[in-house]
Amino acid sequence: MITVTENLQSLENLKFDNDVHYLKIDKSEVAELMLYLKEHLGMVSLLDIFVEDRFLLGTSNRFLINYLLKNLDLNKSICVQFEFDENFELSSQSYIWPNALVWEQEISQLYGLDFSFQNFKNSLQIYDVMRKDFEVKNIENKSLESLEKFNLSLAPSHYLYSSDLEVKLSLNDDEIQDCFINRGFQYRGIEKNCENLTIEQLIAYSSKWVSDKAIFYNVLCCDSLEKLLSVELPERAMAIRMILLELNRIMDHCLSLAMISYEKEHINNYLLMMSFVEKVKSLILFYNHGHMSTSFCCIGGVNNDIPQGWVPTCISVLDLIEQGIIDINKTLTGSNIWNTNLRVGTISSASCLEYSVTGPTLRASGVNYDLRKKAPKYFYKDVDFDTPIGQEGMVLDRFLIRVEEIYQSIRIIMQVLDNLPSGEVISNNSIALRNLKTNDDLFRERVNTGINIPKKQTFNSIESSNGEIGLHLVGQDSIKLSRLKIFSSSNNALQLFSSVIIGQDYHESITVFTSLGINMKEVER
Amino acid sequence: MILSSKLYKEHGVLKGLSLAVKYVLSSYLSNISKKNKKTFSAKSIYRSYQRKYPILLTNDKNELRCVSCRLCENICPTSCIEISANTNPSAPLTVGPSPDEFKIELTKCIRCNLCVEVCSVDAIELSGNYDFFDDTTKSVWNKSELVKNIK
After folding, report:
1. What is the pLDDT of residue A168?
2. A470: Cβ contacts below 8 Å, ≥ 6 apart
3. Does B51 touch chain A (CB under 8 A)?
């Protein structure tokens, strides 16, 4: 345990050997340390806050809270941990990182913990769905009734919000004066369910977490389990995973481009983009026996090899999409009406970093941060591609960056297909299920009881189509995990959305929402 | 890389001409043969080998292949399989009695292929078509109904 006042200077000379450095401190030293970490060590963004409930272990301090901080320049992260019991009142960190409010709100609803929220205005509220066997304290939300203006509520499950969300606006003519977001219609208790699953079951379940980004989450889950168990992959499996990740990125970008153009009543472009979504989806289904992603990955590789006739269809589909992008550049990017329509919703790079939003939103406002370049996995190091960067951070920039990124991921896929390595798809480790089938007793034990997961923590993240997604795994030296936490950038983007649309016209709020790429299935897990 | 393949390498004039004629002729012939065939699309292919719902396979003597080793019951992520049988936990995986009852709750099944991968006697397969809209209250299928549904 490090005492802060003595060893603050030694923190400066920290060597980050691993990806995440775990820092255990005492609960009284939090406030001093957090400010120091932000100002002197450059931990600009707060990725995640989560709590481990250790009721079953029977320790004197029941809860363990984790703050995951990141330095974007060096791509290094610190996890600050401290223990506390039920009566301890936590101080809210939202005066340092404003996006902390979302996480803290969720924690206080899940565990009944106190945060000192009094001085902070909060425009987000969780709908009453959480387990509550305790009294909820100290959660104050502002109400719209006191404003005495014209109120408009965009109903839950608006067709363009792509998932369930209620946005209440108070208007002065067309201008939005204040906004109030009601969320929590889709909590499914994923993280709690995962604690009772073995590894194979977890990988199969991970593709069902978010339906649009099934491959991203399946690869992320499998990759972080491989990191925990230190398994190596064969080259061909890595190449196949890379191709499917980029295909999913193209699909998701096409979908959001379609939504933006539908909102602006540009039906031609909408139909074109939706046809691309269908084509890429059918490619993925062709590879994976008519499924989006169930059992695409397995530990130590990929379940299926590339089927016969898949590569030529992939190339022909990608050629079609490339021609479509050239058409868009001719018709849309050159036209004045389109450009002036999308000059709304400016987000500065400072506020992006403040709320720690990553992905196309951050790149559109001029910060060059891409995990594929910063911490390359698989063959991203060897592949030649560019990261597009915007200037002003408007909806137009986000639109153009998505268009360019589709082109870049086509480039990546073509390069990988040219140099597709030969060999096996699953490694020869004893962990992979398929290699154990010769020995009956070992196989039975492996299936019925699973693998022993070591007592270790890992945080693993990859670049998805709208920002960083990550998975925090905590092993407890048994078959099952003690805690699993899903982190996604769209949780922070939702907080940013409520502050961006103030001052805009109300009909532009939907365009801003779709351009930020918020998926409510990621926010509510 | 594609550029290092045979077509793009440097050749002499005669050899180059012969290669070119060969490739042009082959592409022309393949175009002619395509006109008679159906159009090639990804959708038509994946439908032919799409993973569907589980069915139980039988022997030549119309008995179930299942030896009730309970591996599929244990690995199922949604726990939709339920077997009632007397299993011997130390017996080899290819020998055993056929189960008394084999129930699958098909509305829970996510078709992840784990049960097929685990099975060592190929007793289960994901190729069944079921009519879910005949009886809306029904969600659990019996041993006898799971065998019948081979189409």
Report:
1. 76
2. A47, A48, A220, A459, A460, A461, A462, A486, A487, A488
3. yes
